[in-house]
Amino acid sequence: MEKRVLVLNLDHSPVAVVSPQKAIVLLMLEKANCLSVYELLQIRTVSRSFEYPAVICLNNYKNIPFRGVLLNRVNLFRRDRGECQYCGSRRQLTIDHVIPRSKGGKSNWTNLTTACHRCNVLKGDKSPEQAGLTIQTQPFKPTLAHFLSEYAERQAEEWLPFLNSRLVQ
């Protein structure tokens, strides 16, 4: 698996994650500076060899309107680490409304959680307390930095110094 490159805005806020090829193009066009590289990795072309960038910073501030992390099935399962928030199972995952829609619950980050089919059927149209279930992690609205730091812990520890200050936001 190829390593990805974290792109930071001029104020060091995360903007994107790009391929190493895209990062090299930004560096060659002097649109970005390299802040960190993956040790012992190189990108080779026919005529040149480049250090493998891990984190780059844009030279000009890009005013990118960020509307938050998109609420969808993939991101919800990612936030909940791909496990049922009631029993910890990783099988037959579904989306559960903590406060059922029939009782006025909304479809938003703080009311949706990942549940296995068994727990979702058991809970039915009740609150977790009424169904005798306990939520392991309270639903929350994740930030981009939350997802990026999760990726960094698994794949790119070189990113962590650039993300740690953003986790509290």
From TrEMBL:
Domain of life: Bacteria
Keywords attached to this entry: Endonuclease, Hydrolase, Nuclease
Taxonomic classification: Bacteria, Pseudomonadati, Bacteroidota, Cytophagia, Cytophagales
Tagged with keyword Cell inner membrane: no
Domain HNH nuclease: 71-121
GO molecular function, one term: zinc ion binding
Matching Pfam families: HNH
The keyword Kinase belongs to this UniProt entry's keyword annotation: no
Protein's recorded name: 5-methylcytosine-specific restriction endonuclease McrA
PANTHER family, sorted: OS07G0170200 PROTEIN (PTHR33877:SF2), SLL1193 PROTEIN (PTHR33877)
Organism: Algoriphagus aquimarinus
